[in-house]
Amino acid sequence: MDTMRDRFAPVVSRLLDEDPRVAVVLAEIGKDGFVDARRKYPDRVINVGIREQLLIGAGAGLALTGLRPVVHTFASFLVERPFEQVKLDLGHQNAGAVLVSAAASFDWPEGGFTHMAPGDVALLDTLDDWTVHVPGHPDEAETLLRHAVAAGDDKVYVRLSVQSNAHGIAVDGARFLTVREGRAGVVVAVGPMLDAVLAATEGLDVTVLYATTVRPFDAAALRRATETAGTDVVLVEPYLAGTSAAAATDALADMPHRVLGLGVGRRELRRYGNIDEHVAAHGLDARSLRERIDGFLGAGVRV
After folding, report:
1. At a CB cut-off of 8 Å and minimum separation 6, what does 213 contact?
2. pTM for the model
3. Which domains are assigned to the chain?
4. Residues of the chain above pLDDT 90, percent
5. Cβ-contact 201, 67 below 8 angstroms
6. Of the candidates 69, 77, 123, 122, which has an alpha carbon nearest to the alpha carbon of residue 93?
7. According to the model, what pLDDT value does residue 151 have?
């Protein structure tokens, strides 16, 4: 199966053909996927070199001229390194852009901590008015990329990962989807966490919601789920643990509830290892999730 990032250049190249407003801004990373597109549209496919602050600034400048820029590099270089430019050039100037990341939380362990960004979504949460898409499959990535580019002049972040569920689901760029229904708790699986959550909750009497658009947070879907499943909520996110805990708490503010946030831990893992070893070390494999979800929800969760 191809990866989400494999879909990125072909999809955006087609969008360049379809919409004269679309522009692409790169910082070396990913440039090989746009060789043909750059020949066709030299004024709309721009490589600024290894200059991440300029990457965001150039994207904002294009947006201010009326274009719809798609800005791409690794997550650590797209959100963390140029965060001041994301805050000011895009946010303060109210300039819309589509930021598309790769390498996610720990997708390239050999790159070390400089190439890891488990705090990217939490960092964007310090700013207002961002839509955040976290696809769990290449088909979903393609759909959400198109949604992002078509979103007027909004500020959108699309988080691509090599981690993937086995099968894609028809997503709409807005709602959480109900994948399984139960009565003893709600588990929200974000993006590539769905397969592990379904395996972890097999035989448990829980509702599983699937989230690929996490900002805005679908409070209405969570509230509907709690009407039959109760107000114990587990969030399983492929980035910093607890990133969406405040959003879930806000959604249930008028009722007694408990929220458990599972995700990437704050402690830095200083051995490279491989992706599966990082998943297990952060307790995001199916066996670890089962223990943590079962322990939180209690014996009554078993069917």
Report:
1. 131, 132, 133, 134, 144, 171, 173, 174, 175
2. 0.97
3. 4-159 (3.40.50.970), 177-296 (3.40.50.920)
4. 96
5. no
6. 69
7. 85
